[in-house]
Amino acid sequence: MAGVKGAVNEVVLVCLVDYLTGETLMNTHVRPSKKVIDWRTRVSGVTQDEMIEAIARGEALAGWIEARKEVWKYIDADTILVGHSLHNDLDVLRMVHTRVVDSAILARNAVGGNNRMWGLKILCEELLGIDVQTNGRNGHDCVEDTLATREVVLFCARKPEGLASWARVARDKEEEKKKERKKEMQKMKAGKEGEERKKKTGRKEEQVKRRPEETQNPRLRPRASRTYTVEAKR
């Protein structure tokens, strides 16, 4: 997806793969309906020049409305959609679909007690032992990401013991991170308290230094006490 005028996101490429067979059904550019502010090539894998060429060849769909229509040619309300952080894809297609399997949610639920969402790259490395998204600044390969998501979900379905084992390790790592963050917070708090104590001590010392100087001012000198003798005559 790309960022367009109006601080919203729009779809620029749609990829669909058959979950059972792995066949690529769609891998099509989508011409944004608004001016693009940020192509987000590092993630989308799409550049402005690439889009211009796709439009010139007549191979780009006209905006998210046509892209959504094209997607609905392959699915219906009963189709189970598989994806990673699928809500982002549904948002840019302006779709609501309740029958989904999300690899990010599968991983988060397996770990439990955590709001963290693991990225696709990490899941592929730690669950499958494969490296994806290695194009650097050239961006992600949409087909690769889609097939990788399929493999992660297949792993979770076929090897629940393997998923549970990974989740235990991930949970332990998260607990260690929490402890480290807590220690860092305590150090920061102790440092701030130490600085405050130094400031207070410095202010007291400054006040003590000023006192002798103040007594040199005649107006600030305490008046000498006088003793009066009173004699009462009868």
Blueprint of the fold:
Elements lengths: L1 E3 L3 E3 L2 E5 L6 E8 L4 E3 L2 H4 L3 H9 L3 E3 H9 L9 E3 L2 H7 L7 E3 H9 L8 H9 L13 H17 L1 H56 L19
Parallel strand pairs: 4-6, 7-8
Antiparallel strand pairs: 1-2, 1-5, 3-4
Helix pairs in contact: 6-7
Q: Could you say what the CATH topology is called? A: Nucleotidyltransferase, domain 5
Classify the secondary structure makeup into a structural class. Answer: alpha/beta
End-to-end separation in angstroms reads 111 Å
Helical fraction: 40-55%
Query: What name goes with the CATH superfamily?
Result: Ribonuclease H-like superfamily/Ribonuclease H
Largest sheet: 3 strands, antiparallel
Structural commentary:
The protein has 234 residues and is α/β, with parallel strands linked by helices. α6 crosses α7. The strands form 3 sheets. Strands 2-1-5 form a 3-stranded antiparallel β-sheet, with no helix packed on it. Strands 3-4-6 form a 3-stranded mixed β-sheet. The chain has 8 helices and 8 strands, in the order βββββααβαβαβαααα. The protein has one domain: Ribonuclease H-like superfamily/Ribonuclease H (Nucleotidyltransferase, domain 5).
